[in-house]
Protein 1
Amino acid sequence: MPPSPRNSQPFLVQLGDLFLIELTNWRWSWRSMLLTATITPLFGIIALGIFARDSGPSTLAYVLTGNLVLSLLFGAMDKVQSRFTYMRVVGALDYFAALPIQRYSLIQAVAVAFFLLSLPSLLATLGVGALLLNLSLHLHPLLLIVIPVCALSLAGLGAFIGVTVRDPHEGGSLSLLVTLVLAGLGPVAVPPERLPGIFLILGRFSPATYAASALRQVILGPVTLHLWLDLGVLIAFAVAFLWLVGWKMDWRGTS
């Protein structure tokens, strides 16, 4: 039986083509994206670092890694949300649905593209932040796994917001609210002993909590068995959001 024309190309071919399309869309505006995703976390590092400077390196570690998560929230989650909201409003999703591609190849291509675009701001925040806070970095090879997993789980949340909201204004407002909530709940930028108990409980349901924990271990050390729990939860969040986005997208009844 001949293959269906809608899915005639292998998944990886679809993913690669869509990934290049996404990068091409941002060839003129990537500099402003880089600036936005870098400046906000650096200001957060400076502001929190002033108050935490006398609290010791442990607290400063939370300041650094918490703002790395903030960089991912602005650089990956918010931008993916904006992209999916825009594609829905202008009818681009209908256009892609008419092509012989799978919906999940489009979702993953957008997420991977924005991860790549957010990577320079993340690295800049890491280097400058460590310098400002006078922290010694102990980079672990698992960093090469942790960063993509953190970025893709947060990008998945952004995609879900993008396919759910009614218009770009609602999407931007909701994305900002989610960013502030995720950054504030749980031990993300603030040590757990300085947070109310209810924040710690709610933080267990936030991907940002596990992203910050994983980043602290592979950037500042030491790496413990808890890292595998963090990665497992983040992968579960990424898979769940991917499924929810695919379920929510109107794909004209295609797979």
Protein 2
Amino acid sequence: MSSDNYRPVLTKTDFVRRYMAGEFGNHSPTWDSLEDFPFVYGSCGLDGRLFHIRNRNPGAYTWYNLKAEQLSGCWQEACKQYPSHMLYISEMAPTEKTVLQGEVMLCPGGLYLQWTRVARPMREAFKIESKKAVGLAAGMLLKEYMCPNSYDWLMILFERYPDHVVEFSTYSTNWGTLPNFNTVFWEVRFY
């Protein structure tokens, strides 16, 4: 499919709306606001899972590892710093099962990958370790850790969104909104 059918991602707010609609493939289960979050703990299967309050402001603070029963209080605190329409909730990925994560883009000379294997949220992980791979080395690294479905989808994202960076996390298990994917695509943004 041609990239002509897909608009570039120019703002984080636009990205989040399209992300929640599933446009970019496998992602974390996500709710647009606290009001959209299902608070019936026992009957909806959310007890024992962890969540994070994310931000539509690029680079802004994220509240990690929250239990469902902590979300309401933390949401109120977050709203003291940011307008509520700039916040949203996602389920925490199995960060402890991270095998590779990073940011990758397709440049005229091939793939350019900034990556880490540190099993922490990406911002924290990059502060501890950040490596780079280009061209064939980047492709081999991605193919080594991503399942075939995830790697194929990454290539589709590059076809649809040229000149974009794709932020991802790959796990030792399948996880996310789509079955048989071991990679979550956290962000697609124009560079």
Protein 3
Amino acid sequence: MPIPRLRAPIRAVLFDVDGTLYRQLPLRTAMACELALAHAWSVCTGRSGAARPVLAFRSTRESLREVTDARETLAARQYSAAAKRLGCEAADVQQAVEEWMYQRPLKWLSRCQRPGLTGLLDFLSARGVRCGVFSDYPARAKVDAMGLGNRFDLVLSATDPEIGVFKPDPRGFVVAAERWGLAPEDVLYVGDRPDVDAAGASAAGMQCVVLANSSPVRTVSFVSVRSFKELQRALSSVC
């Protein structure tokens, strides 16, 4: 099997979190079961459930990728937009999201960690390559829950005040490179969505690797690999 080609040198690797550091399918399956049980209980007790605000939040967030509004921070707008859609208070959406998307899933993350991740991080550390994460969602609690808090010297989220935009806007990628004192072309971004991760990295001048289930292919904007072990082989000659 040919090894995907990357340009040297690579001095830092910036990772997406959701769907990249861990597999989303088993996590979503576990949380869907929890949410279904909670919904059934809410129906029995006559209380409002969390399913509607969580689903509205997810879909509304996707629609905000191309929207900017200086009158409201991204952190606030993601809740207010979903609340407007549902006809409820933003605080109600935020409460449901923080519980069901940010807190309850943490207990499952270590079990869903993508194979080969710790080996790749050991390899990069031994080579003196800096590692960080940049996610559209709050990332610190997730990397800590996976036992990786000390493996990343940079943890950024799209809702951080200095960023304030979702991918594929390049701002977060640029901020990461600046925080490291590196040129964007010396940083590799690793994600799982070509339309968001590869597009944003390319706009910032970074190389990008996308984890996919298909055979490795090289395109204009990203390299595709099927596993972290395959990525480690690709990195062995460029860092």
